[in-house]
Each structure stands twice: as C-alpha cells, then as structure tokens.
Task: inverse folding
C-alpha cells in the first residue's frame, strides 16, 4: 500500500498516516498479518521525521490495528473486535458529526444514507 501525505494539510502528518492505514484495512489493500515498512523506512519514503511515523504507528497499535515485535517488525493485527473502547470512540465521533449535520440542516434520512453509502463503498473494494 502506498501512503500519500499532504504536507500542506492542516491534518497532522501522523494522523494522515494513521487514517490512510485504516482506510487501507477497510478497503482490503492491507491484509491481516501483512508486514508494514519499518518506521525508518517509511519515514524515508515519505520524507518525514521518524517520530512522526512512530506516533502514527503507536496510535494504531494502541487501537489494536497493528502489532510489533523485534523479530517480525510491525504487522497488521490478525483480529479486529468492536470492543467497549472502540464503541465509545465511535459513539463520540458520531455524536459530533451528527450534531454538525443537524446544525447544517441534514435530516436523519440524509445522514443514514451517507453512512450507508460510505460503509458500502468498503464492501465493494
């Protein structure tokens, strides 16, 4: 999977790395147990600081998407579960997004259709 970062974006680089790996998992571009580049290698490829890549990887590890060990390096985790921590984070993010949607005049059906379309976009990939 080729990561693309936008240095002009207001989104922090580590967050862009995090988000693109999540999108790669959802789209099937990354598979369970697939090896990822070492922090140093990815930092060189993206022309960013190693600490930036490490921060993105560490966030993904804390969320259960990646695992690391000294022998095999960083890999995609084999199992993903919607545990209580994930469900709480999802609920908080959805709460914020639905509040913004309501303020902007979207109704429940509009939001449901948007969510369904986004979800289905990952089903077909």
Result:
């Amino acid at each position: 999977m080729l990561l693309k970062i936008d240095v002009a974006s207001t989104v922090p680089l580590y967050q862009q790395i995090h988000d693109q790996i999540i999108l790669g998992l959802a789209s099937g571009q990354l598979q369970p147990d697939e090896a990822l580049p070492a922090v140093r290698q990815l930092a060189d490829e993206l022309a960013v600081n190693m600490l930036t890549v490490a921060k993105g990887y560490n966030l993904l590890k804390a969320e259960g998407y990646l695992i690391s060990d000294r022998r095999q390096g960083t890999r995609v985790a084999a199992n993903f579960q919607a545990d209580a921590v994930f469900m709480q984070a999802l609920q908080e993010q959805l709460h914020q997004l639905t509040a913004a949607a309501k303020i902007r005049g979207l109704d429940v059906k509009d939001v449901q259709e948007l969510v369904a379309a986004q979800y289905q976009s990952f089903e077909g990939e």
Observations:
- The chain is about 60% helix and 5% strand.
- Residues 13-76 form a domain with the Arc Repressor Mutant, subunit A fold (CATH 1.10.10.10).
- Residues 16 and 60 are 12 Å apart (CA to CA).
- The radius of gyration is 16 Å.
